[in-house]
Amino acid sequence: MLTPDARRRARSEMTLTEKASLTSGANFWNTKPVDRLGVPSIMLTDGPHGLRKQGGAADHLGLNASIPATCFPTAATLANSWDPTLVERVGEALGTEAAAENVSVLLGPGLNIKRNPLAGRNFEYFSEDPLLAGRLAAAQIRGIQSRGVGASAKHFAVNSQETHRMTMDEVVDERALHETYLEAFRIAVTEGRPWTVMSSYNKVNGTYANEHRELLEEILRGRWGFDGLVVTDWGGNNDRVAGLVAGNALEMPSTDGATDAEVVRAVEEGRLDEAVLDARVDELLTLIARTERARTAATPPDGAALTARTPDGAAPVDLDAHHALAVEAARRSVVLLRNARGTLPLGSHSGRVAVIGDFAADPRYQGAGSSLVNPTRLDVPLDALRDSGLDVVGYEQGFARRDGGRGAWDSPSSVRRRRKAVRLAERADVVLLFLGLDESAEAEGVDRTHMRLARNQLALTRELTALGVPVVVVLAGGAPVELPFAEHVDAIVHGYLGGQGGGQAIADVLTGKVDPAGRLAETYPLRYTDVPSSATFGRTEATSEHRESIYVGYRHADKVGLPVRYPFGHGLSYTTFEHSALAADRTSVQVTVTNTGDRTGTETVQVYVEAPRAAEGEFRAPRELAGFAKVTLAPGESASVTVDLAEHAFDAYDTGAHEWRTVPGTYTVQVGASSRDLRLSAPVVVDGEPWAPDTTGLPHYRSGQVDRVPDDEFAALLGRTPPAADWPAGRPLTRADIIAQARGRGGVGGGLVRLIDVAGRLLMLLGRPHAANNTRFVLDLPFRSVSRMSAGKVDDAMLDAFLLMVNGRFWRGARRLVPAWRAHAMAARAPKKD
């Protein structure tokens, strides 16, 4: 056991080489041991909504199969529950399964802000709102760690897109950085106390997040009191020594000793204080000690009934109970977006039901990439509907979802599918139409290119709505889509990505077995161009400019009075609720909620705070979420609900003092069912020192019209001239550049990019969207990663020779590559020193 005394003794007896070795991985998922001092290796593995422990060859993007594990709803889905207690229970189950597999750290939750609907990893994140994201992430962290398994809050920080994510510079003003992008992490760290935090790949205002001393030391540790370990994202190390100095303790995965040698040289040459290395080693030893229970427990600590889950003697887990929890979590996260004329719930009165759509029989229930889970079982919506008692008269595919984005929607086979679906619908009294985003649309390493559903899905929807038969649309996907048909269908139910139990959950909501309790954790714009970052998102090479500043999601839409498809917090129920008797002060809100309908239902009480003069040209959002609570009521039942207000409910970030400041004035506390369904309000007077931010020269930020901020105004907001948005043309590529930068250069580099492009297209044609998306991951790899992630097959000398070839010096590079390869091969065959 690594007691504090044992840790101190172990560190004091370590050699410099042993200390350096502990700061990088032994392989893809494990840390290095120091056997002679009793320091064990520990495993860190994915994922945020289900254990992804690979049984064979390891990789970061889900190419190789992992052991079966419960696939829970993704974070984007769970966020719609607005239920920290539920999310904590899911965390407990995740921790239990991880502990059963001797996994010490589960890499999640992800809690980056959903800045733009096209970000490819939105399905892994909770919300556009930092309070909601932070509270739910903290709950999941508490649940995971209650089982002795460390959680890893990620990706710290400002990881807002997947395009060029490994070198992208996120250019953001200080106020938005703290109020929007760091606030969720602050809440998760201070309320959840994670044992690890994962740094993001990207730069933040010119400095790699992994080397960002202000973020990692001054803010994360100094202000928030984080006492755990910071680990890189896999392959996310640029300068190992700079990372150690900034506060990053562990680089993953293994670099076959390459960066360990850099650390030793830095200490020996006086460039790295050994005391800094000692501090990082202490952080790893502390993590090993904290997770000891997960490596030694034979049974889950709650003593639940157990069912053996693996044939090799691993600790057992009650998979039936976990599947039931997955179904419950999905049920409570389904959002009823529209229900015209009370079409739902369906029942015996509904008559003949036609089920149409590819997603009904082949559900989309999770994302892709490093979070791809191998589920223990899978509930299919079509099967659940047939077992529900409904009169299901037939099923038709209607469209092939992997054809929809490439113009094949009007091919003969596509036309035949639509015709068969229309003929089935003509025999029905109601149509259940399953639509959504396909697997190629949402994945790690890839951002979406538009916010539309596939053309073949839209074509089918038009034909079905023209029949006059009631149409209920069931959506699948982890982020908003444009819904041009919304007013032409009778109901819309959104299951998001419901995990392995999502199919049963959808059937239960459609038939009224459960009341739809989900509420949107993000705004649904009418069209993509309404998103303030739409003009620049994913369109630049070197930087991502956050010109919209604090105006993300509902904060922007409500500031400028922009019509939206569905507002933040929206969600319907099969019953109705009345709010009354509001009382508010600086710390909490009390309100009475009454179920005025004829069914038991669950209401999400949402509390917003409207700042004084926010609508009168102040650089401030008109209202912000300040608290929330869930309450379940029987028909006619009332309950008094108390909601504690957020710590910064009446604050703004003062960029002059570099700290939060309470802004005095008369605030309006509002209670309702969405950011635009506010039913009660009460004034709250807040005292404090008068203060207002200097908004001289910032007219667009005072008005909220931030979709086209001029260059000089953005520079004024930043307090500096932003860096060039695109890569400099023509200069030689270096280790820090990414493979995609060789595009169009001809020669070896251009040929490599063309080969990767062709591989991606071929994989898509072969119906392997996950693998096709992973080719984009390769293009975004920095050249330095070729050696560091090659498991020792490529060293820096070989890489430098290859870079000469990429930069047009083919023969010079080739002459260097051959001897470098020979020297590397001889070194690999040489006997290892003890």
Please tell me about this protein's structure.
With 834 residues, the protein is α/β, with parallel strands linked by helices. The chain has a 6-stranded mixed β-sheet. It has a 5-stranded parallel β-sheet with strand order 1-2-3-5-8. A 4-stranded mixed β-sheet has the order 7-6-4-16, with no helix packed on it. Helix 4 packs parallel to helix 5 and helix 25 (796-806) runs antiparallel to helix 26. The longest helix is centred in the C-terminal third of the chain and has 20 residues, at 810-829. The two termini are 26 Å apart.
Rg, alpha carbons: 27 Å
Biggest sheet architecture? 6 strands, mixed
Helix content range of the residues, please?
25-40%
What is the structural class? alpha/beta
Describe the structure using short key phrases.
single chain, 834 residues, alpha/beta, six-stranded mixed β-sheet, five-stranded parallel β-sheet, 26 helices, 26 strands
SSE topology:
Layout: H1 4-13, H2 16-21, E1 44-45, H3 75-78, H4 84-100, E2 105-106, H5 130-145, E3 150-156, E4 169-171, H6 174-181, H7 183-192, E5 196-199, E6 203-204, E7 207-208, H8 213-223, E8 229-232, H9 240-246, H10 258-268, H11 274-290, H12 292-296, H13 319-331, E9 335-339, E10 352-356, H14 358-361, H15 381-386, E11 391-396, H16 412-426, E12 430-436, H17 455-465, E13 471-476, E14 491-494, H18 502-510, E15 524-525, E16 543-545, H19 554-560, E17 564-566, E18 577-584, E19 588-595, E20 601-610, E21 623-633, E22 638-644, E23 651-654, E24 659-662, E25 665-674, E26 677-686, H20 699-703, H21 711-718, H22 747-765, H23 769-779, H24 783-788, H25 796-806, H26 810-829
Parallel strand pairs: 1-2, 2-3, 3-5, 4-6, 4-16, 5-8, 10-11, 10-12, 12-13, 13-14
Antiparallel strand pairs: 6-7, 9-14, 15-17, 18-19, 19-22, 20-21, 20-25, 23-24, 25-26
Helix pairs in contact: 1-11, 4-5, 4-13, 5-7, 13-18, 16-17, 22-23, 25-26
